[in-house]
Every structure is written in C-alpha cells, then in structure tokens.
Amino acid sequence: MEPVEPRTSWTFVTNHARILAMIARDPQARLRDMASACRLTERAAQAIVTDLESAGYLTRARHGRRNHYRITPGTHFRHPAEGRHEVAGLVKLLAGLDPAPDAPAPQTNTTTHTNPPA
C-alpha cells in the first residue's frame, strides 16, 4: 500500500502558540529570532505579537533598545471548547521542548561592566 499524501499542510500548534512559547523561554527574544525560529517573516511575527498583546496574553515594555515581554498569568484559551482552561499549561509544555537544531540561539546582552581604575 502506498503512503497517503496529506491533504493540507496543517500543524497542531499555531504560530501564535509558538511565539508565546519563545517569549516564555526568553522574554527579551528579538522579533527577528522569533520569526526565524518559527519560519515566518518579521512582519508576520510582529503581527502575531501585536495580536497577543491586544488580546491581553502579553505585555511589552521597552528596555533600552530591546523589548521585554511579559506573559499575562491567568489568560484562557480563546476557543469555547478550551475556554475554561488557562494557556499557561500549553505554553509551559511548548517552552520546555528543545528548540529545533537550526533555530537561532537567543541573543543576550554581552556588554560587560568593568570597574574604573582606582
């Protein structure tokens, strides 16, 4: 018997959930890195972050040149079938998964502070 080709290219996890999981892993993740890891354009990743912020799933604050994201605790799934459940469990599960081997490493602030000479 020949393998059956899938009818569509759907996945179980949405890009919104992927972006939220990336933010859970690294609250200072760059939009560029989120887009790359999720195989999206930066514009699509920005639209998803805006969706999540508008819906109350996260807040965004500017720290210097970087955004710092904070996931809002106690938020629930949007669909009525899961609406009584919080998204935190799914985000925790997804954030705990190993990232793809070709996913970009999180960018950290590499500025070092040295004490001035006495």
Task: Chart the SSEs and their pairings.
Elements (H helix, E strand, L loop, with lengths): L14 H11 L5 H7 L4 H13 L3 E6 L2 E6 L16 H9 L22
Antiparallel strand pairs: 1-2
Helix pairs in contact: 1-3, 1-4, 2-3
Descriptors for this entry?
single chain; 118 residues; two-stranded antiparallel ribbon; 2 strands; disordered C terminus
Give the N-terminus to C-terminus distance in angstroms. Answer: 79 Å
Give the helix tally: 4
Tell me the β content.
5-15%
Largest sheet: 2 strands, antiparallel
Q: Say how many strands there are.
A: 2
Helix/strand/pairing category = alpha+beta
Strand order of the largest sheet: 1-2
Could you estimate the helical fraction of the residues in percent? 25-40%
Arithmetic mean pLDDT: 86
Return the string of H and E elements.
HHHEEH
Brief rundown of the structure:
The chain has four helices and two strands, in the order H-H-H-E-E-H. It is α+β, with helices and mostly antiparallel strands.
